[in-house]
Amino acid sequence: MDKQVSTATIYLGSPFYNDDQRARVKKARAILKKNPTVVRVHFPFDQDFVDPEEKNPEIGGIRSMTWRLATYNNDLTGIVNATCGVFLYDMDNIDDGSAFEIGFMRAMHKPVILVPFTNDPNKEKEMNLMIAQGVTTIIDGNTEFEKLATYDFNTTPANPVVGYKIV
Fold it and tell me: Which stretches are transmembrane (predicted)?
């Protein structure tokens, strides 16, 4: 058997607004670090731009145009430089930013591995058509998260979305 070579640069996309989402990112990074095909993981919040002109940006929710442009451009550069994307998709709190990043990545013909999560295992599984058809592979975050450690990011084999009501 040939030795696997680390060539994949991962764009790790995820909302990062609550404790569950932050914990998933931490766990995903640890799992991806074990994967022999991954050379680097880019997580956009690691390059969080700070506008020195902003006063108390966390209060009020309105960010400066300088911050918005820098953040947007930094995220797109991360996607452009990645070989594929891994998206921790919060099915309880759908994030428009993640949906945009998935679409942008697919428009560049780059594979996307979707890892959906829910805190309600009894919740009906449903997904937007554009997300379901747009991703290359689905790995269930609640039951298969550890598969990220052995997934071959060099060849990115397809595993289409099944078992979801498509809306």
Answer: none
Burial 143-156 (b: 16+ CB within 10 A, else e): eebebbeebebeeb
pTM of the model: 0.92
For every residue of 104-155, DSSP letters joined together read: HHHHTT--EEEEEE-S-TTS--EE-HHHHHH-SEE--TTT-GGGGGT--TTT
Instruction: Say how many CA atoms lie within 13 Å of 129 toward its Cβ.
Output: 1
Helix pair angle (65-81, 96-107), 10° resolution: 40
Domain boundaries, the chain: 6-47+62-164
Query: Which residue out of 53, 54, 58, 101 is catalytically annotated?
Result: 101
Examine the residue annotation and report whether 101 is marked as an active-site residue of this protein. Answer: yes
Q: What is the CATH number of domain 6-47+62-164?
A: 3.40.50.450
